[in-house]
Amino acid sequence: MPMRSTVSSCMPRCLVSVVLIALLTTLGAPAADVVLRAPLTTVVPITGTVSEGDKDIVASVTIPPDAPSDLGVAAWVTDRHGRWYQTARPGTLTPGAHELRFSLAEGDAVQPQNHAGHWNPAESAKTVRGGILFWSASGSRAGIKVEGLRAIRAIPKESTAPRLCDLRLDTPRADGGIDAATGSRWSLSARPQPFPKNPYDRGEFSLDLVVSTPDGHEQRIPGFFIQPMRGSDRGDREELLPDGAAAFSVRYRPRTPGIHRLRLEGRWAKRGASTERTLAITLPPLTASGAAWDDYARVDAKDPRFFSADGSLVWPIGPNLRSVWDLRSKQYLDTRVTPDRGTLAYHAYLARLAANGVNAIEVWMCSWNLALEWRGDWPGYFGQGRFSEENAWRLDRILDDAWAHGIRVNLVVNNHGQGSDRTDKEWNNNPYNQELGGKLTAPLQLFTDPRALEGQERLRTYMVARYADHPAILGWKLWSEINLTAGSQDQEALRSWHEKAAARWHELDVYDHGCTTHWAGDFRAVSQPIAVLPGIDYLCIDAYHGPAAEGGGMILADLLARSTGEGRANGLSRYNKPVLVTEYGGNWSACPPPQLIAENSCGGWAALVTGHAGAPMLWWFEWLDQGDRFGPYQAIARFIAGEDLRHPQARAVALTATSPAGDLWSRAWMRPGRMLGYVMDRQWGTSGMNAAVHERAALATIAQIAAGRIVIEWWNADDGTALPPVSVDHPGGTLTLQPPPFTRHIAFKMYRTQDG
Predict the structure, then answer these.
(1) Global pTM value
(2) Which superfamily does CATH assign the domain made up of 654-752 to?
């Protein structure tokens, strides 16, 4: 479809910019007596809201003899956020009485203003204001009588046979086939007729691609509605505008080389007594070239405590980058609030993080960041059941950007405040809330009410359709801090919700990303009935803690060790699933800066040697970024490069560490033939202060080490550099190591030589 002009052919281009100015001068004028403001455009609004769906705008107008000879008239509508469409009456208005009727139905000549979107029933359904406008190039203050201005239901047009128009396929060949590359996204788009009023309701219309892969499997890939957007940098913020006709799209990423057979299926809801209408189209075969590819991070098949992709270990390293800014960080750490420049801000974050060894982050889809659904009077949102195309576009860009930088995203679908009326409560703004026009009276019903579950299924399907092919997604985190939601009031309901929701994610997602949920506090908050569910592939926890000097407090390294278990009955290693700390850094209210510096420095090392599936994700990302405190990521990334933690016999072991200069904390991750160890000054790890110089420390392995030649590498844990390796001939049994002098902490690798 050719791009339409953003200005009506009947309206001078120069007048578009003054529409809003004139509107301010006419809102208070009586609707029956309108004084022209020409050459400004004179806008006459309908009192109150206009109806959803196809509509006509009607009015009786009387034009006086002194009206300008070039007087034009148009009807207009906008959504609640000011996105404007209009349709003009051909010709000019002559003196006398006129009965005006403007049709704003699908197929009518309704034009966008100041954006490049296209009119369709989905846009019509969102319009809540409207009216008429007059313009003239001449100066005039003539008085016009306007009567009966209102919006009425349009006369339904005759139903047409369902069609898929403007079908576009990526990379078509001249001979009718389709080329694609394994590991690369391939997509198609089409515009259904009739077009659905709510394009996010698959009961009204759905588009699916059925793929028969070369190895004989059949996959059903759901399609999704997409409004193309164009982003621009205003300096202070990112601005998005529609950029072309909306359509339905399907995204597919082939993993197996060879011929993939494709069938496109469109389904329209029945109308009246008719049955559901289905249209199936056999598409040309898709030939995928290249090697077999499967670079999605999943729970490792042989050692389910870790992630892997295409056979290689994936050990996430990076912070919790939940949104662009964090007011809590300003409150407790005196950081500056980062300007919210959307994907532009994320691009800058990702570039800095990738340059410092980061390969994973967490991102929240929260109301102030990337949520697709929220209360309709907030900018960019349209209430429950309709999704934010602006945020959907942003998430596309962030995932693409992350993958280009080698970074995977733990994607949080719901943050706890959305389901809480107590902790970080956002229930008062949740579009499911009955007080905002929703259908629920309490947040607990988000986990139990069939209407809420139906809405969540709609959102889930849309997210899988739009994003599941993306390898940047580490996994779907269903909730952050689920024990802070109203669901904690009914543990069985919460367990049942997770069981069913996770099962549906796995059914829909043919790329089989992992699903998880998250508990606040620390590992002791984890609910066993949820943790054991087969659909919950990995466990996300906090590692917040009070000062060690207070009752119940402990240092971060001990908390991380206890989180996975070290043989304790309540350690999470008993679930045989990856454990990922996605929030830490002192307590929920932070801690003194020296302690936070120490925890940022030692957290990754302590997690590595205690069997965590990745480095813990620091919550205080603005403190990290504004202070250029990325060094610990570089250090741990250099140390772990080329290492593989996976092995059925691999385990965390305690080391006996002594030093005349002070207490030491030490652990190691041991698998057959290799040990990765870490030693830390306990006082420094507790407070970040008073680190001693350890010149005569000794480490004794509790585990029995078989006889043979062993290589030992000592690593600077601050910058990730190694000293020259040293070989020893070990007679067998306990092995005692003497590290070189160090302050704060040191790491080591111990492994056998080929002849040892």
Answers:
(1) 0.93
(2) Golgi alpha-mannosidase II (2.60.40.1180)
